[in-house]
User: What shape does this take?
Amino acid sequence: MTKLLFVTGAVVLAASICPPVGRAVAQGADKVMPPAMVGHMRGYVFTRFMFARPATDLATDCPQGLAMSLRDSFIAQLPPEDRPKAEQIKGFGPVGSMMLATDHPENGLKFEERKEPPANLSVAEREALFKDYIRHRRDPGRHTICNNPADYKGVGYRTIDHTGTGSGLNLDGTTDGHATATTCEHKKFTGADGTPGIDDQFWRVAGCIAVYRSGGLDWDSSIRTGDWAVLMELSTPKDGGPDGDVDVNFYSSKDSLTLDAAGKVPAGLSLEYIDDPQLIAKTHGRIERGVLTTEPVDFTYKYDNQIVHERWAFEGARFRLQIEPDGGLKGQMGAYADAEKFYNYTVKPQTIDGANSNNIDCPGFYAALHTLADGHRDPKTGVCSAISVAFDLQAIPAFIIHPQKTADAGTRVP
Amino acid sequence: MSRLLASCRVLTAFGLALSLSGCGPREPDTSGQAPVVQRLTEKQYRQVIADVFGDDIRVVGRFEPVVRKEGLIEVGTNAATVTPAGFEQFDTMARNIVSQLFAPDRRDRTVACKPAAASAPDDACAGQVLAKYGRLLFRRPLSSDELKARVAVAHQAATSSGSFYDGLQFALATELEMPEFLFRIDTAEADPDHPGKMRLDAYSKASRLSFLLWNAAPDDQLLSAAEKGDLNSERGLRQQVDRLLASPRLEAGIRGFFTDMLAFDGFENLAKDGMIYPAFNATVAADAQEQTLRTIVDLLVVRQGDYRDLFTTRRIFMDRVLGPIYYVPVAPKHGWVPYEFAESDPRAGLLSEISFTSLYAHPGQSSPTLRGKAVREIFLCQKVPAPPANVNFAVAQDTSNPDYKTARARLTAHRTNPTCAGCHRIMDPIGLALENFDGIGAFRMQENGAPIDASGELDGAHFANAKDLGKAIHDNPAAASCLVDTLSKYAGGQASVKGDREWMQWLNGRFVAERYRVPALLRTLALSNGFYAIAEPGKRTGLSTAALRPEDQR
Assistant: This one.
């Protein structure tokens, strides 16, 4: 056995010595997650990082009902005499059973021939065929209704238009959404607690699509399957008390999260971040009475979900996070996302089949993103190209490992 | 002689280890041990197969349950038998092993000689192969009659199968099924240096040495030394002992001993309630054992440290699996990294490691009683009587009783029963000191919202918490003498008896003089006469003394 260097632990476990910042240890104190300290920085991993979806009533949000699916929108555009025949084709179940007229930029109203895979294929051959199919359907160079949504019309697409209850942060500083030097005029939501001036134009775009609403898809479930995670470091308030100014760093995790026997991410995981400047964001913040608010920061994170591998970039991201009695964090991020890129992140990678099965009408979705864009205003044209979006967040303590500075985990001694 | 004594005084004055200079009290006679027959443990079986045939040979099969006697499996192996079902398993394993050895791509490596004809018996070639492997498997050369019998088996099987190799394969499998392989059998002979007394023969000596220091069968070099009679000379024995101690394989020996002493086989059946302890799983259990064994090897072998420091050391090894339970950062994604707890950290020493706190706990809660009992029995060699059959554990186990939120409160109520109080008085103070570690060893300050009081007292030493308890055990003379006693039992496969008392005192004294260095203790033991002395038939009597008398511990 070679002689090894030892790392001195810098972690003080006793909750009484180092309680969660800003909160007294409350009931169930033996289940409080202590801070995960490396040096003077507390680490967290976000276990929830998902589009905000307020618990609002569908009838209020979308009086005309949910937005039509790609299939239904397509059929609605057919000549009336063709619609009954088209209705007989149900869904996208068998792969390739229904391919929309994606090769017809003129919005040709035809169904492509159904292509059956050759019989008696081996498993490997079937897998190869499937991969080829996926590659083909996701080929960004191929002209399809979801690759080129601007070339098509969205029929029956619906958005949220009211100024009632919503969820998110006030990004433009106005309470009525009037145009500013950097933003376009837009409607505001009111928070469930009465907070005025909430910006979340993305919710207007997506809120009438079932999978985006409460009970729909967990878009961030791939965090818990270990595909991606956002990490955060928080310095100890400079005056040493529970409140005060702090440094806040965001990273994308290089390591997969693991789950415990209860299917939850345990506190205290050691997670290294990806040492890529594009995926590192540093800003300042302030903790007041157990609430962290950060200054705006441009923030990009790595998002992986099955066949989707993207980097989601946001401008002017602000975080508001409550420090919970159990030592975790809960709150929101509000930010602007480039409308064109955001379409590419959220819809384009899904394939036509995926978009359809999620009831996303690509042309309608795309058009709404641009129509409702409220940020990044072009001073010459007055057109906005970025859209405000809110995310619901939850985080638990985790030890953040710096890739090139393992000594941060402690002090090496001979 | 006077010069030697003078040197001893000088060395002693400088506090150097007496053993290194050969100084110190003369080794007293012992009553001698009984020759024992010990069944190979699973670990030993697998190690022998790897050593003899190569570590690419897979051992597939189920081993019969082990028996723990005097706190050790190694002692229990002298009472272990092979049941018919167990023999079937050994038979299956043997056939599977030889089928790998005689696979087309490996056969020529297994059989160095070429038979005259592949379709007929060749006794000469078969004899070479069976003698070569038999010597390593039986840990001694096969006698002429034994070899003849194995060759006859090969001959007969080759004739009936029409294949020399099939016949040899079958005969080699029978060697793997014979008691001479499956059991370590002590053989005694008259001791020419002590007329009228018995000692182990050289091959038995070689086995004892090798299983003690490497947890493996003797290698070719050690068997050759036995064959030449070197192990019966002081110089020859010292050469081999020092060779074995200097080998990297000493780590396996240390691991084998402490795995047995700490009763890590208990992990095989350890279950935790997933609802209460979702962080615990089989990987945590395996890594917890590995963590402790790495820490032990690092302290005792790599750094040649004081055994007693195991109870106080802040140096440990960590991996990402255990990191969340210890709640510490672990930089490497894979593998182990040395870690040192901060001085202010509540953890230090083996008793605060997950391997101990999780193993000695209930599936859904900690257990001061199990932990206290384990400390008394494993580390202090003090036997705790079994509870009476009609004991009522209702109060002690009801963690939801709002009147008794902590284990201390529950056990205090439990001890109102005078039948229970006697034993709990010696177990609970120790176990309660570890109450800051829950049923899987995660740190906690409170139980059911009530603060945990971890203070107590051990043999007059008061402590406030687990770290203080570790210090109290470190300073308790029984800790060191217990290790000596346990190691002695492990080495000989049997408990010490009254007639060993003076010898045990001597061994204990040497351990103290050697500043509690375990490799030095192993050397002393391995070079001692007592380790190889065999009692005259019917003379090994007296009650088993699991521990020395208190006055002997000092």
